[in-house]
Write a sequence for this structure.
């Protein structure tokens, strides 16, 4: 008999909070949140904050009273630190499986396929992984093992929520009855891919728990919810339907946007961040070796200020020739911005989108081009220099057009910790 | 009727083509009267012999000269016979234990408590978290929520954090008090 596949999901507990605490042991045990860009919403909560009932994504200004009452500390997102810690985390996990059996799923989640290592006790292995990541990179992790990705994800959740598992839950050693009994203890919303809305509909159908969903007929649910739900149910039943991706797929869309530090009012003011964001988006585009066939721009006013007139337009257009040239893309973006912009609003956010991405080199000229698009080597080299300069001296050192010093629209990051692990000037000091 | 044997073109007659002041064929053109001095000045300059100190204008409006950028380097000459033996000193490899890049962090020392161990104010410390601290290891320890660099020893089975400077007292730990080690210092980078 074929042994079932065994897939582990290793996930860093409260990743951003844990990264901050590694360098600041004094924050251990202190209720701590990490805020999104511009110090807007909670994107990570320590266990103490979760225990107070604060939900993911709660705007910081809405919880200021609670914070005062319980001494909740807030820090700005330090992506230089989290990115470096994430790289270390994934590198440690790479020691456990061959390269093709590791799938880096996100900054703090990693799938490991233990195919071909049938003798390994994955509960013990999970504990060893947990101990190694804690010692080597100082991050607490949970490990879930199942015969499919969805089951591994569920097992990981169980390991986190029920202390008796010690952070490691292997569903493959349970009998089917035990597995289903365990699933009965968890609401259906905990299943990977089941959002709040979907969960409400499933509860209405009489499927309130993960166990109930796992016992249902995937074909029948497909009729009502579509093929994604069919796959989810099959995965819960141990039939693998979600492909293994050890190479991250090229992005289909690139968005670069950010809230301004404060409101902006004029076209000139807003054109600056739009140029800056398009510079970043174009850089990402070149990194993945694509060209964009469509450019979009959007603007937002503050929806948390109902007293303000609201205007949040968005528009995109198809380019005559797909390109990855920063200057060309910025020209289009600024033109779009000019078409969207209306005076008299208090704008708080702008962003750019690149769509219709295709591999570079598959240029297709248009019938009405003045000249067939040629590979302009000098232009390509120029873009290469641009990317190198920004890699060496930091984002935004070299750009197109006037970008002043991010005055007025730079992010608010009032509680930003140093780049401890990526910058010589900001190393952690020990006495 | 026979052709006349006189009159008409005679081969070899007249000025030789290119025998003018320019050394190449010429053509008559109409020019605006107002531009006559400019054109004459240009032609005058054009007739001059080229000298290094006074280069002759070939044209008043040179066409752009395209430069080709190559995507790859073109090797010229013989390949270096040493290329096959290229070796260099890799500081990362030297300073970081093999396979421990993920667990190695760089911290900065502050103060004078460890000068006896060769750790001075402002030095960079390479700290390997994967190593198990032993008696005598220089460690980064967590004391009162802060990170400190000290030498780890044991007295009657109890850990002691020792400074390497007589002006600093040892940090001892009472029964039940827990000492947490953050990492083991493996190298000091000191600027001389």
């Amino acid at each position: 008999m074929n042994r079932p596949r065994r897939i582990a999901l290793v996930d860093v507990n409260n990743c951003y909070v844990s990264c901050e605490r590694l360098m600041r042991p004094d924050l251990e045990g202190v209720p701590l949140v990490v805020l999104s860009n511009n110090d807007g919403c909670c994107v990570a909560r320590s266990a103490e904050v979760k225990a107070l009932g604060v939900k993911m994504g709660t705007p910081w200004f809405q919880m200021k009273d609670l914070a005062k009452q319980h001494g909740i500390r807030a820090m700005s997102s330090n992506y230089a630190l989290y990115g470096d810690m994430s790289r270390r985390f994934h590198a440690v996990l790479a020691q456990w499986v061959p390269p093709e059996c590791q799938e880096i799923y996100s900054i703090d989640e990693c799938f490991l396929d233990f195919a071909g290592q049938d003798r390994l006790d994955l509960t013990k292995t999970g504990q060893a992984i947990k101990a190694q990541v804690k010692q080597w990179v100082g991050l607490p992790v949970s490990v879930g093992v199942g015969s499919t990705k969805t089951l591994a994800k569920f097992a990981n959740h169980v390991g986190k929520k029920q202390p008796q598992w010690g952070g490691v839950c292997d569903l493959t050693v349970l009998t089917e009855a035990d597995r289903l009994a365990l699933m009965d203890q968890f609401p259906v919303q905990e299943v990977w891919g089941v959002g709040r809305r979907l969960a409400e509909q499933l509860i209405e159908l009489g499927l309130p728990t993960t166990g109930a969903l796992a016992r249902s007929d995937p074909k029948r649910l497909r009729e009502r919810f579509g093929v994604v739900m069919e796959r989810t149910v099959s995965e819960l039943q141990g039939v693998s339907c979600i492909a293994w991706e050890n190479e991250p797929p090229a992005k289909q869309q690139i968005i670069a946007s950010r809230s301004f530090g404060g409101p902006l009012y004029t076209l000139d003011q807003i054109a600056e961040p739009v140029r800056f964001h398009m510079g970043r988006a174009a850089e990402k585009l070149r990194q993945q070796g694509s060209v964009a066939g469509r450019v979009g721009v959007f603007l937002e006013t503050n929806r948390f200020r109902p007293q303000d007139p609201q205007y949040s337009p968005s528009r995109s257009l198809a380019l005559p020739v797909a390109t990855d040239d920063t200057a060309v893309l910025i020209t289009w973006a600024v033109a779009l911005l000019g078409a969207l912009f209306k005076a008299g609003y208090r704008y708080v956010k702008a962003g750019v989108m690149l769509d219709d991405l295709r591999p570079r080199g598959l240029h297709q000229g248009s019938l009405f081009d003045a000249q067939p698009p040629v590979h302009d080597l000098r232009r390509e080299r120029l873009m290469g220099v641009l990317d190198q300069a920004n890699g060496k001296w930091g984002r935004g050192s070299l750009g197109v057009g006037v970008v002043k010093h991010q005055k007025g629209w730079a992010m608010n990051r009032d509680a930003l910790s140093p780049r401890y692990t990526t910058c010589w000037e900001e190393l952690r000091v020990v006495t | 009727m026979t052709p006349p044997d006189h009159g008409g073109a005679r081969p070899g007659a007249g000025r030789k083509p290119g025998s003018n002041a320019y050394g190449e064929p010429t053509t008559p053109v109409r020019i605006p009267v107002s531009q006559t001095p400019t054109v004459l000045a240009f032609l005058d300059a054009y007739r001059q012999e080229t000298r290094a100190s006074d280069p002759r204008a070939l044209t008043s409006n040179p066409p752009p000269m395209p430069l080709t950028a190559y995507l790859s380097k073109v090797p010229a000459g013989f390949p270096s016979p040493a290329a096959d033996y290229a070796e260099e000193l890799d500081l990362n490899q030297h300073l970081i234990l093999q396979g421990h890049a993920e667990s190695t962090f760089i911290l900065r020392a502050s103060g004078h408590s460890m000068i006896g161990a060769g750790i001075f104010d402002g030095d960079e410390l390479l700290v390997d978290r994967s190593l198990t601290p032993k008696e005598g290891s220089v460690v980064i320890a967590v004391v009162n929520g802060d990170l400190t660099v000290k030498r780890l020893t044991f007295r009657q089975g109890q850990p002691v954090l020792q400074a390497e400077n007589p002006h600093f007292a040892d940090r001892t730990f009472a029964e039940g008090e827990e000492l947490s080690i953050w990492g083991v210092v493996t190298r000091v980078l000191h600027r001389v």
The interface with chain B takes residues 25-28, 88, 91-92, 135-138, 377-378, 381, 420-421, 424, 427-431 of chain A (CB under 8 Å). The first helix of chain A runs from residue 15 to 23. Chain A has a mean pLDDT of 87. DSSP finds 14 helices and 13 strands in chain A.
